[in-house]
Structure formats: C-alpha cells, structure tokens
C-alpha cells in the first residue's frame, strides 16, 4: 500500500508539473507576442505584424491543452484543498493568457493603418507600457510556479503604472488630434493600442489575484484602479 501511495503521489506531482509547464509556455508566448506586436507597430513592419497574428493560433492550442490536462487531473486524481485550487487557477489562467494573446494580435492588426501615416509623437509611450505589462506577466507566472502569494499580491500595485501611462497617453493623443486633425485616424488606432495594453495589465493582475487565492484560499484586497480616461474632457455633470 505505501508503494502504491508513493506512486500515486509521484504521478500526481508529474501531472501538476506538466500543467504548470503548459501555463509557463503560454506566458512566455504572451510576452513574445506583446513585444513583437509593439515592435512591429513602432517600426511599421507589416510582415512582422502578420507573424504575430499567425502565431496567436499556438496560444489557442496551448489553452486547449491546459484544459484537457486540468480536467484529466481532476477526474483521475480527485484533488482537494490547495491542489484543487491550483488546478482550477491554472484552468482560469490559461483562459486569461489566451485573451492576452488576442489583445496582442489586435495590436498587430493595427500596424497596417498606422504604417500608412506619418509617426505620431505621443506614441513613444507605448513601448514603455508594453515593457511594464510584460514584466507583470513574467513575475506573476513566476509566482504561480513558485506558489508565492506574497510575490503575486505585489503585482497588484504595479498595474497602477500601466494606468498612469495610459491616462497620460490618452490625454496626449486627444490634444494631438485636436491640434492635428489630419492625424485623427492613426491617433485613434494608437488609442486602441494603448487600451489593449491597459487591458492586458488588468488581465495580468487578475492572474496575480488567482495565484494568491490558489495559495492562500483568500482573495487579496481589491486593487485600486487609476484609469480615468472615461471622465477626461467629459462635460461637467453640474
């Protein structure tokens, strides 16, 4: 009986390690997709953007692989408590990472329009936004693999940096469009790019919340949100 139990525990650990590996691959691909999409946008490289768009299929495949693994582990191993929370978290994280990949693909798709116009000055903020969201994704998934709730919750405040960049870019692009009406089309596309990055930051911090819950069984305090773009330049309700 002890040998059977040891074998079962080892098999379960191997299944969990495999699931973590799939999530890690998804995270690495998301990081690459975001970086390559923004690079293609900044350098007006339509061919590079097409590569990003095509690579999104791999994320879809990995999400499906994670789902199959998670369901199989639950069905065969009947995990409880911490183990069950980790598997459910992995399943949810896979879905979030797939969505992050969709945002990266959307950024790449806007390269064609942006490449047809002259550079828009405020867009220099976009690569820095991308750098921060990539770091959040990387550190959050490290926390997932290491089962580090403290590191996960530390990611929640970093999303505020992304919001601050987005608010700054939003204001700058609106001012730029008012002063240069012939740049409205590319500037609008850049606003959508910035919003995509801001949403990626939100999703990344949602993953951090899932990691914290899977480790501790408790949800972290609600994080503050600093996206004020909905009220910028809006009429005074009074």
Give a structural overview.
The N and C termini lie far apart (75 Å). By secondary structure, the chain is an all-alpha fold. It is built from seven helices and no strands. The protein has helices spanning 2-42, 46-77, 81-109, 111-114, 126-146, 149-179, 184-216. Helices cover 80% and strands 0% of the residues. Helix 1 runs antiparallel to helix 2, helix 1 (2-42) runs antiparallel to helix 5 (126-146) and helix 5 (126-146) runs parallel beside helix 7. It has a single domain, classed as Methane Monooxygenase Hydroxylase, Chain G, domain 1, CATH 1.20.58.220.
Keywords:
7 helices; Methane Monooxygenase Hydroxylase, Chain G, domain 1; mainly alpha; disordered C terminus; elongated
Structural class given helices, strands, pairing? mainly alpha
Q: What is the oligomeric state here?
A: single chain
The tally of domains stands at: 1
> Taking Cα atoms only, what radius of gyration do you get, to the nearest Å?
20 Å
Helices and strands in order:
Layout: H1 2-42, H2 46-77, H3 81-109, H4 111-114, H5 126-146, H6 149-179, H7 184-216
Helix pairs in contact: 1-2, 1-3, 1-5, 2-3, 3-7, 5-6, 5-7, 6-7
Summarize it:
The chain has 238 residues and is mostly helical. It has 7 helices and no strands.
